[in-house]
């Protein structure tokens, strides 16, 4: 039986990082003061031929933390009623514990050393996630403290688009305005977009970088 090439292992694709797509819905733009209301996380996996595909997704409605600011304009935009009992919202500490446990399990299975957040305008999602980690004192955060993969920047390079909907349309990915601005839906679409761009790069011959390996041998990492 032929061994799987190392370049078809997720642990080898992003320098040992485990990409996890995250989207949040919030009650404003200030990660320190405004409530985190929804969060979703989608893990990714690589098939035997090295194609990146979405794997599993978790989603949580979040109760506003004590003293959280709720901007009316933000709530009107998302349509979220933070106090609607039908949301089934949970404390953000409980949500983070469950989400991080889910992510660490996938990270371990993939043989990766650390998770990295993939997001559309990723700094926004990363800031709110890290603020929640700080508030809850969670010590099991698997994510890199500042590095991210931003699909907005990548989509600008690949498709000339920065808006999630427009980038998805350019990539041939269906997108519903009615379902948008829901953390789970946007996470799934961002995951589809990220996988499409990574796989397109592979299809064009950009991964694995065999030409560089042939020219420079095993020291390729030292020159990139």
Q: Secondary-structure element order, as H and E? A: HEEEHHEHEHHHHH
Low-confidence stretches: 220-224
Report the end-to-end length measured between terminal Cα atoms.
Answer: 33 Å
User: DSSP helix count?
Assistant: 9
Any idea what the radius of gyration is?
18 Å
Task: Please describe the biggest sheet, giving its number of strands, its sense, and whether it closes into a barrel.
Answer: 5 strands, mixed
Structural class: alpha/beta
Task: Give a structural overview.
With 224 residues, the protein is α/β, with parallel strands linked by helices. The protein is built from nine helices and five strands, in the order αβββααβαβααααα. It has a five-stranded mixed β-sheet with strand order 3-2-1-4-5, with helices on both faces. Helix 5 crosses helix 7. The C terminus is likely disordered.
Topology:
Elements: H1 10-13, E1 17-26, E2 36-46, E3 52-61, H2 72-78, H3 92-110, E4 114-119, H4 122-136, E5 143-150, H5 151-159, H6 164-170, H7 183-203, H8 210-216, H9 220-223
Parallel strand pairs: 1-4, 4-5
Antiparallel strand pairs: 1-2, 2-3
